Predict the 3D structure of the following.
Amino acid sequence: MPDPISGLRQRVSALGRVDLFNLNIFNPNFFRQTPFRLTLVFLSVYVFVALLVFGYIYLATSTESRAWGNSAIDARMKVFQEIQTTEGQAGVVSKVLTDDAVEWVFAKGAFDGSGQVLAQNNRARMEGRDLPDYVIAAGMKMLKAGRKEMSVNFFSRSPNDEKCCRYQGRIVQLGDDFLVYVAMDMSFADHNFQQEVKAAVGGGILVIILGLFAGTLINQEVSRSVQRVTGVLERVQEGDLKARIPVRDTGDEFDALGIRINQTLARMEKTMGNLKYAGDAIAHDLRSPLSRLRSKLEVSLIDVDKDPSQAREALAKALDETDQLLRTFQTVFAISRLQAAGGAPDQVIFDATALADDMAELYELVAADKGLEFEFEIERDVKALGNRDFLAQALANLLDNAVKYTPEGGITLRLRRTSQREVEFSITDTGPGVPEKDRGRIAERFVRLENSRTLPGVGLGLSMVEAVAVAHKGRLDISEGPGVYKNQGPGLRTALVLPAV
Amino acid sequence: MKVLIVEDDNEAATNMQRGLKEAGIEARLAGDGQQGLDAVKAEMPDVIILDRMMPVMDGVTMLQQLRSEGTDVPVLFLSALGELEDRVSGLRAGADDYLVKPYALTELVARVEALARRKDKDAVDTVLRVGDLEMNLISRVVKRQNKTIDLQPREFQLLEFLMRHVGQSVTRTMLLEKVWAYHFDPQTNVIDVHISRLRSKLDKDFDRPMLHTVRGEGYQLKA
């Protein structure tokens, strides 16, 4: 049963309208997608930093405005103190009462030790009853504590203006029973700060909205790219090894990833193909030798029935045949493994000269035993990259062939570096050679040419050589030999070429 | 000589036991690596034939354990067809020789004998003697009945190997592996022609031949 969202989505799609539900934002995974999460992280960091900055600005401006208020209050207090010393209490009272318009941000007043207000300026009056009450209560407290001076900070609760005002002020005892206060309305400074905060919050909200929008766009872009990859991988998982990721040639990371995955898929597809081919080939290749073995055993059984003394010979023959079959199997298996692996195992830099020397030494006597000349021209100090045992097997196969198919004349083994610095082992014989039309197919499995069928062998030697060559990123070259020799020719030249080190 | 066969395939193990018995070698059987270790503790064999793939404990693990306990008994490692990597891992784990399944029983016997012999023959000899044949490993001079035989370097190595395994059959594959140090399958009579040249130098001028061909097996040097 599909979930309701996807059911709805299908219905909407069926209507042929814009498929809103395909937009990423409706995908429940949307908020978990990496680009969007990165956007959120960015925005959180942004908000955090903004809070830090505003905290700092607030601290700095409030300290500054407090200091400014203090010095302004100081100046006024000083005036009162001077008047107190020169004119006495009455002078101070009249000064408070005659405050000019310039002093409108200050609330000032004077009262005695019993809390009786002696004078107030306009501002203090205007702000309602709370202002003197609060200050006078503070003044009484101050007197009780035996102090001469005290800071008072308070909000006024004016009935006219709810938000007015924030006062910073001070009460000072000027005479024995005489106190004055000066308080400055700081709300204009607060107002400035509030304006700044409002602007910043507005800007911040804009940044967050734009950020989320950009994050969503980036997210869609990235998830489209990711979907190109996951879509292909899903198809591969379902068995479609031919699926490839479309590459847009933009050279970005997703292209690089796509190219890499495509390469891996190509390699996988090839290996799978090889393995399948190898399996089929082994089954196919072994069918005929197995049926041959079976019929030989049947014939042996008939022979032994007729003459039991032949039993030993029949069994020995069957054993030989089995060995031959095993050898065939081993070779087919080795070829398949080489092809499937795509490279020979355990390749190291080895001494190619020494390998050629060894092969020359081994096969010189084999050739001599058949009455053939054996020559070698081996370049000194040639190094190559490869698996020595596999290459020895390949060279042995080429040399075996040369000896087997050369009735008269000789064989030459050469090792040289070509002009492209490739390492070339070549074997030339003076046998009849191979017609040009057949050269292309003699390296195929189990291919034996007409005139070689009388000689022992199953037709895997050159296949093995070619597999070894390819497994070393090299090649097997087959070409004409030196020419006519004693009414036969033109001979054959086989070369195993390894890439330059 | 006492051999321990560690192999989970009972039929294969019994066939091996049978083949070794024909060659006069007594063999015990163990079904996996753990049983193998127990059997080694109960009685130290002269040679262990060790299969690679086994349940409970595989051949490589058992071999590593044996070697880490300081046991230097010669080990012949068996592995399945075509697994070149197995040879490397087997030898790395401390095997002394290695044989690919399927193998001929004669090959198995020859290698077991060679391994058992190696233990006491690995001593640092400077002169090898077999009957009237004498090989000086320092001066690299070979004499038979005090007549010097002129050998090429490879012939010398070939003869040295045969002398170290006197009285045993050595197979062609063994010779290619041990004397030439190659692991491949020569299709033709590569080893035979080298043996016959050595034989012509060794036996031609003397009334009694020393280097014999063992039909279906290989070669044998007799005193």
In short: Chain B has a mean pLDDT of 88. Chain B touches chain A through 23 residues (CB under 8 Å). The CA atoms of residues 125 and 137 of chain B lie 8 Å apart. Residues 2-121 of chain B form a domain with the Rossmann fold fold (CATH 3.40.50.2300).
